[in-house]
């Protein structure tokens, strides 16, 4: 497009052009065309220059933004350490090398007029370099591009101070303050009592307690270190007041308890004295509430010590009651006492303790008659008619002809343990319980017993004669037999009939039965040395039973085998002595038939397996 240089034709004036001119407005003369062209060129140049400046500025800012992507903005300081323009690694190295905690910013802990200088290291403070670098890196790196540029520009114009970040070693401040506590802490002490010389009662006054509040003081210290504020930090101290202050009442109580000894008396024993020194050892103080509602102490005696002392006395004054012993008069059909019952006595321990406490604290009579209680025998003379023992309900008899004198002695002593025994309704009778210990001190002698597959001499040999007889009486009484063991082989003393023996060996092997008659059962024993018989009689009330025996039924006989000869260096050469006699083996079953009103109500089975037994001879080799 070209510009025309022809002069324009003059046109007729328009209405606007013909209006009168305002005197205060003079229209500018039209610019010459050449001059206007130069103006436009200059404007274009300025526009291009401005654009270039803008582009350069934007480019510079973009370059700066890229350069600062992994660097701290220039002008950022951590305290007095310049980190501007450094990468994270460089900033961390500079902080580690150049940062120090200013000496004028150290702390002082104060309590009253006492002060303790504190270095940050004392409370475990150390510069957390990485966290501090992270904090410095946040400056000018947060928000959108516009926000970042604005903040970066502000920091470039005016530097930015970033507070260092500190880490605290766990427990360091607490340990530091605990050491200080040696000088500040004071334990709380309640008022208490003390026994001085001559058992004089002294009151030890209480004192208030105080203790550093370690947690609160530690938090205050850490806050000051983080702020690098320096100055004094008050030590937070918790105070506590004693609960016990007035012990005048307790002092009077203790003085009353220790006023003198206490004497215990009994009609035919003692006396027993509790000295003031012993009372002092028994003394205890318990917290309680006083008449004014405040806390105080009450004095009393330790029940543990007092009880142990009284129980020793109880054992000395106790007298066991003696039970009545009865025989059954078959002619009259009644029980006749043969040994009268005698009441016993015991000490009322609880009442005695109460009396001792009253004597100690009452301040009056300090002599205490012991409260003794009568103890009724389990079986008194007057109990006989109520026992229900009115007839013979079972009898067992065995023969011991051919027994040695020691075996007969053991039978007599053993049978005596059961003579007069009364078994209560529902009670389970245990042969071993009533037999007790089998010792020479009780009158037993050495005799032959069956032990496993042999016989041997032992104290009490022959007692199985007693248990077998007791078993037979229980069999005919019809009572349930809950434990019974046959012998290992047949024994002539217990035959006939076969299968009606019972062996015992305390405590493993026992004979037991239960009294299910609803009444008491009296056991009487009789040893007839002339006729070589042992008899057990059970007296009580027959509940309407009749007893029958079915058997014995024999099966599986086994021959005893040849005799066995054993050398014995204690016998003269050529002498032979028999110590075991041959017996065949056999299985035997006996049934007990229990009937009521002629109707069978129970059938009990008693099985015995007797092993074969060889004859054994000893042959002298001496």
Number of domains: 3
Please give the share of residues in helix: 25-40%
Radius of gyration: 58 Å
Q: Shape, please?
A: elongated
Oligomerization state of this entry?
Answer: single chain
What's the pLDDT, averaged over the residues? 86
> Which secondary-structure class do the elements indicate?
alpha+beta
Q: Strand count, sense and closure of the main sheet?
A: 4 strands, antiparallel
Beta-strand share of residues: 25-35%
Concise structural overview:
With 622 residues, this protein is of the alpha+beta class. The chain is built from 14 helices and 36 strands.
Architecture overview:
The chain is an alpha+beta fold and 622 residues long. It folds into three domains: 58-242, no CATH class; 248-381, Ubiquitin-like (UB roll), CATH 3.10.20.800; 388-620, no CATH class. It is 29% helix and 31% strand. It contains 14 helices and 36 strands. The strands form 14 sheets. A four-stranded antiparallel β-sheet has the order 22-30-29-23. A hairpin with a 5-residue loop joins strand 15 and strand 16 (295-301). Helix 3 crosses helix 4 (129-138), helix 6 packs across helix 7 (214-227) and helix 8 crosses helix 11 (349-362). It is elongated, with a radius of gyration of 58 Å. The N and C termini lie far apart (164 Å). Residues 1-26 have low confidence and may be disordered.
């Amino acid at each position: 497009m070209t510009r025309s240089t022809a002069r324009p034709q003059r046109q007729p004036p328009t209405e606007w052009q013909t209006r009168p001119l305002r005197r205060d407005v003079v229209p500018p003369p039209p610019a010459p065309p050449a001059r206007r062209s130069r103006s436009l060129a200059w404007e274009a140049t300025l526009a291009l220059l401005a654009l270039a400046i803008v582009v350069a500025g934007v480019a510079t800012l973009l370059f700066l933004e890229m350069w600062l992507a992994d660097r701290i903005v220039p002008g950022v300081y951590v305290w007095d350490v310049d980190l501007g323009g450094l990468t994270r690694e460089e900033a961390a190295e500079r902080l580690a090398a150049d940062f120090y905690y200013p000496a004028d910013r150290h702390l002082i802990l104060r309590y009253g007029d006492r002060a303790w200088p504190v270095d940050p290291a004392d409370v475990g403070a150390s510069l957390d370099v990485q966290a501090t670098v992270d904090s410095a890196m946040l400056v000018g790196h947060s928000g959108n591009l516009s926000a970042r540029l604005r903040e970066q520009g502000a920091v470039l114009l005016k530097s930015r101070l970033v507070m260092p970040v500190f880490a605290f070693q766990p427990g360091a401040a607490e340990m530091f303050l605990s050491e200080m506590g040696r000088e500040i802490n004071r334990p709380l002490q309640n008022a208490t009592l003390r026994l001085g010389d001559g058992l004089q009662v002294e009151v030890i006054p209480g004192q208030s307690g105080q203790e550093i509040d370690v947690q609160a003081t530690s938090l205050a210290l850490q806050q000051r270190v983080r702020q690098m504020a320096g100055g004094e930090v008050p030590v937070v101290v918790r105070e506590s007041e004693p609960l016990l202050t007035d012990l005048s009442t307790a002092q009077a109580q203790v003085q009353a308890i220790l006023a003198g000894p206490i004497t215990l008396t009994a009609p035919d024993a003692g006396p027993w004295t509790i000295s003031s020194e012993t009372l002092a050892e028994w003394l205890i103080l318990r917290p309680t509430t006083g008449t004014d509602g405040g806390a105080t102490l009450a004095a009393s005696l330790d029940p543990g010590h007092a009880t142990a002392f009284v129980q020793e006395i109880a054992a000395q004054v106790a007298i066991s009651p003696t039970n009545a012993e009865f025989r059954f008069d078959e002619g009259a059909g009644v029980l006749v006492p043969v040994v009268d019952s005698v009441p016993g006595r015991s000490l009322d321990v609880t009442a005695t303790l109460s009396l001792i406490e009253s004597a100690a604290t009452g301040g009056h009579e300090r002599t205490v008659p012991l409260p003794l209680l009568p103890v009724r025998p389990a079986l008194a003379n007057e109990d006989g008619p109520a026992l229900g023992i009115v007839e013979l309900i079972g009898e067992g008899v065995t023969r011991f002809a051919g027994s040695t004198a020691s075996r007969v002695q053991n039978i007599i002593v053993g049978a005596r343990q059961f003579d007069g025994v009364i078994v209560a309704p529902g009670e389970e009778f245990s042969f071993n319980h009533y037999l007790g210990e089998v010792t020479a001190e009780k009158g037993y002698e050495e005799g032959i017993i069956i032990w496993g597959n042999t016989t041997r001499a032992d104290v009490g040999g022959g007692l199985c004669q007693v248990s077998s007889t007791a078993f037979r009486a229980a069999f005919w009484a019809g009572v349930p037999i809950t434990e019974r063991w046959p012998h290992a082989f047949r024994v002539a003393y217990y035959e006939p009939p076969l299968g009606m023996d019972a062996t015992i060996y305390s405590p493993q092997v026992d004979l037991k039965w239960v009294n299910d008659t609803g009444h008491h059962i009296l056991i009487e024993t009789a040893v007839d040395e002339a006729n070589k018989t042992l008899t057990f009689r059970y007296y009580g009330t027959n509940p309407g039973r009749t007893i029958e025996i079915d058997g014995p039924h024999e099966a599986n006989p086994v021959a005893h085998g040849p005799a066995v000869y054993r050398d014995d260096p204690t016998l003269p050469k050529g002498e032979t002595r028999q110590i075991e006699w041959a017996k065949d083996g056999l299985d035997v079953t006996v049934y007990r038939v229990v009937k009521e009103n002629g109707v069978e109500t129970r059938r009990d089975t008693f099985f015995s397996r007797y092993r074969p037994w060889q004859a054994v001879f000893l042959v002298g080799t001496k």
